[in-house]
Amino acid sequence: MHSNLPLKGKTILLTGTAKTATIVEDIAVLGGYAVIAPLIETCERINSNDADYIRLARQMDWLIFTSQNAVDAFASKMQQHQVSVQDFQGNIASIGTKTTTALEQLGFQVSFMPSIFSADIFVKEFPSIAGHQPRCLFIRGEKAKSTLKDGLPFELKEWTVYETVERHDQTSIIVHCIQQHQDVTVIFASPSAVDVYAVDVVPHVGWQATRIAAIGHITEAALQQYGATVDIMPSVYTMQAVIEEIMKVGDNS
User: Fold this and answer.
1) Ordered domains of the chain (ranges, CATH)
2) What value does the mean pLDDT take over residues 75-91?
3) How far apart are CA 170 and CA 14, in angstroms?
4) Which end of the chain is more exposed for a tag (fewer CB within 10 A), N or C?
5) Are 63 and 180 in contact (CB under 8 A)?
6) Greatest CA span in the chain, whole angstroms?
């Protein structure tokens, strides 16, 4: 049945970095209650050879970004080394709408996005448009998997521009939220957040106390490895798509 407040009575726990907080207002407008409890945070990695990588990036045929965090760290390095978008001659490949939006806000034009926002789909679709033996640089986080490097049929250079740090100070907030509310959905956007939750929260409340939502099949697999049942995993790997799926489900009773 249609409702103007499809999230009324639902509590949504956001476990990603503070950037996921942008969805809080949307949840409230739809009648839901959002709790921000970031289990990970990111910080730029400062390398002694950053200037060398900036020069390398300017020579590449393709720069590849798979997260908004990588774009933000890259933007910081552009500012530090006083280079502009016009200094980069190559094409831009991106995974995810948030990543693409962040790149466009910097002034870059994204030339390629995979049909599904996932690295293993990227490696299947990208080679056909990348050109012959393209020079590619992957702008990455320290926890990025080797999917691109292993899966692409040409050399891929990599530049680690940010680190992911686990947060273990959110346990009481999450446990209290789950114990105080009946219809709770916990959203996971990365395996790193799943790891922290499994260690810090699950011993107190288990996996069955809430509805579990995953963004991306890599995150889904991480949850399943811990024995969790993933209730929501939209085909489009975005926070907005998860919220739309939560709107469709009934009470978690």
Assistant:
1) 11-39+167-248 (3.40.50.10090), 43-163 (3.40.50.10090)
2) 97
3) 11
4) N
5) no
6) 58
| Number of Cβ within a 10 Å radius of residue 179 | 11
Q: What is the DSSP track for 102-141?
A: HHHHHT----B--SSSSHHHHHHHTHHHH-SS--EEEEEE
> Using alpha carbons only, how large is the chain's radius of gyration in Å?
19
In this structure, which amino acid lies at residue 9?
G
Inter-residue contact 92 to 62 (CB < 8 Å): yes
Q: What is the pLDDT of residues 102-138, one digit of tens each?
A: 999 999 999 999 998 889 999 999 999 999 999 999 9
In angstroms, rounded to a whole number, what is the distance separating the alpha carbons of residues 15 and 18?
A: 9
Distance between CA atoms of residues 229 and 54, nearest Å? 43
Taking phi over 0 as left and psi of -120 to 50 as alpha, with beta for the rest, 46 belongs to beta
**The model's pTM:** 0.83
Q: Which residues contact 212 (CB under 8 A, 6 or more apart)?
A: 185, 186, 188, 223, 228, 229, 230, 231, 232
Contact 49, 72 (CB under 8 A): no
Q: 3-state SS string over 135-160?
A: CEEEEEECCCCCHHHHHCCCCEEEEE
